[in-house]
Design brief:
This protein has 117 residues and is mainly alpha-helical. Helices cover 55% and strands 9% of the residues. The chain has a two-stranded antiparallel sheet with strand order 1-2. A hairpin with a 7-residue loop joins strand 1 and strand 2. Helix 1 packs across helix 3. The longest helix is centred in the middle third of the chain and has 25 residues. The radius of gyration is 19 Å and the shape is flat.
Length: 117
C-alpha cells in the first residue's frame, strides 16, 4: 500500500469517527482518544477556550477540512451507486433510520433484541 493511500485511509477513519460523533454517545476518554489520533495525523488542532480556561476547543485544520470534504464526496458516490441498485426511496429510508425515534431504552438486564427460538 502506498504511503498516500495509507494516509488517506487513516484520515477517512478519523473523519468518519467525527462525522458520527453527534449521533453516538462517547465517553470522555473515547472522544479524547479519537481527537488525539486525528490531531497526530494533522486533521484536528486544539486551541484554548477563552471562556472556561479548563477546556480546549477542537477544530479541523485545513487538511482536516479537505479530508472531510473528500470523505463526503466518497459517501455521496456510494449513495448514488446504492440508489441505482436499490432505489432512491430505499436509500432515503436507510439514511433516516438512525435518526428515527427508537423508543425508551431497555431496562437494565432486559434483553436488547427480540427473543430467540
Amino acid at each position: 500500500m502506498s504511503r498516500s493511500t495509507a494516509r488517506y485511509r487513516r484520515a477517512a477513519r478519523a473523519v468518519h469517527s467525527f462525522s458520527g460523533s453527534g449521533r453516538r454517545p462517547r465517553t470522555r476518554s473515547g472522544g479524547a482518544g479519537s481527537s488525539g489520533d486525528a490531531a497526530r495525523i494533522g486533521l484536528l488542532e486544539q486551541a484554548p477556550d477563552p471562556d472556561p480556561a479548563r477546556r480546549g476547543l477542537i477544530r479541523r485544520t485545513p487538511e482536516g477540512r479537505r479530508a472531510h470534504r473528500e470523505a463526503g464526496l466518497v459517501l455521496q458516490g456510494l449513495e448514488e451507486t446504492l440508489a441505482e441498485r436499490i432505489g432512491r426511496d430505499a436509500v432515503t429510508a436507510l439514511r433516516a433510520a438512525p435518526e428515527a425515534p427508537w423508543g425508551p431504552a431497555p431496562a437494565p438486564g432486559a434483553a436488547a433484541g427480540p427473543a430467540g427460538p
